[in-house]
Amino acid sequence: MYSPRLHIAIMEPSRIIFEGLQTIICHSSLDCRVSRVERLEELTEMMEHTPVEILIANPMQFVNLEKEVKKLRKSYPTLAIAGIDFGIIHRQSILTDISFTLYDTPEHIIHSLTRLQEKSQHPEEEKEENNHLSPREIEVLTCLVNGMLNKEIADHLHISVHTVVRHRKNITQKTGIRSQSGLTIYAISKKIIHLEDMEI
Amino acid sequence: MFHTPKTKVRPATKMAELIDANPHLLLMLQHFNIDFRVNDLTVWQLCIRQGISENLFVSIANLYNGFDIRGPQPFTRGDLLLVIDFLKSSHDFYRREKYPQISSYIRQLQENHPVREMKLLEKFFKEYFDEVLEHLDYEDSTAFPYFISLLEGGENDRLGKRYSSKVYGDHHTDIELKLQDLKNLLLMYVDIEGDLELRRKLLFALYELEFDLYIHSLIEEKILIPSGQRIEKEVNV
């Protein structure tokens, strides 16, 4: 049986809003199916057997469940979340990738969802392009394996501590190695530093 | 990390079928001190035979099978004492079996490939092992005695009011992070060739340890700490 590749779940208690969104999506060019879920738990259960690519949610339903949402994202890195902006929360919620309001045009909403779908389908590509450390990151790494603290690295390279932390985060993301001693072995394997400079 | 195919554990499922789908459950049986000859018993029958509450057994087995514990569960004090025995038994498994095994594989690999990276890798593992031992010792000497005394309803003179489930929760660290580093170094970076058999054995041992450590922390986070906090509230009312 034919089944569309894109599965959108909508988590919105108002039936009027749910059916409105469903109609807009079904009348668009998006090749997808739409499910309705009442609560986050229900979504988690659903995702255990059926993949969901996009969740459209009323962010009010995430209140006090921030931890659960983050965990869900960690378990399903390709899940994209679109928030419905009711104008109550002004700040873009960190839990959602994009948001739209109920007064946006259907075209606008579909456009946002299409872009989100593309992102959800190709999350790896961006990562792969950048798997190599930048020259700056190599400098930070060299300082790190020489036992320098963030503050010392910042002074040495004339950058802020905040930037050092950002570089460190990127290094870990790209190499998959978190600990300082692990990074030392990485740096030696990649011949970024030479063992003669180090004491074993 | 390795993920098992998800089979939801239910009281009426046959234990042997569950093991067949996820052999890691053998380790769970061992930690519960249950013999592997499970005949054609269902989970429910096995629990009766062993005197373990079905709720506890199913919850832990489901953690092994990749299902979270939803909401607060009514674990009894007896259940939680069993949880402590379970965790102690897994400590034993790490201390006496898994770490020495991994350590000997790394030693052998280092001897076969005396490159400096391997020397550093061995040092890395040794440091990591020391950290883990310290953590296990802390749980055995401080956290578990506290919980046992709390569960048995005795006065907690030695630790007094200073210790609590919350303190334990804060002290609770992710000891599997460095393990991931070790795995990634071996899979992606350390420059040695050949010796596939030994390297496969080492990696399998690391995966097995990582999986069990992961479940171990889940049991502490999802069962022991919340239940401990609940009982502390009851005691203090």
Map the helices and strands:
The complex is a heterodimer of chains A (200) and B (237).
Chain A: E1 6-11, H1 15-26, E2 32-36, H2 40-49, E3 54-57, H3 66-75, E4 80-85, E5 98-101, H4 106-121, H5 123-129, H6 135-145, H7 150-157, H8 161-175, H9 180-189
Parallel strand pairs in A: 1-2, 1-3, 3-4, 4-5
Helix pairs in contact in A: 6-8, 6-9, 7-8
Chain B: H1 15-21, H2 25-31, H3 43-50, H4 54-64, H5 77-112, H6 116-151, H7 165-171, H8 177-189, H9 196-236
Helix pairs in contact in B: 5-6, 5-9, 7-9, 8-9
Structural summary, described in words:
The complex is a heterodimer of chains A (200) and B (237). With 200 residues, chain A is of the alpha/beta class. Chain A is built from nine helices and five strands. In chain A, strand 1 (6-11), helix 1 and strand 2 (32-36) form a beta-alpha-beta unit. In chain A, helix 6 (135-145) crosses helix 9 and helix 7 packs across helix 8. The longest helix of chain A has 16 residues, at 106-121. Chain A is elongated. Chain B is mostly helical and 237 residues long. Chain B folds into two domains: 15-64, no CATH class; 77-236, no CATH class. Helix content of chain B is 70%, strand content 0%. Chain B contains nine helices and no strands. In chain B, helix 5 (77-112) runs antiparallel to helix 9 (196-236) and helix 8 (177-189) packs antiparallel against helix 9 (196-236). The model of chain B has no long low-confidence stretch (mean pLDDT 88).
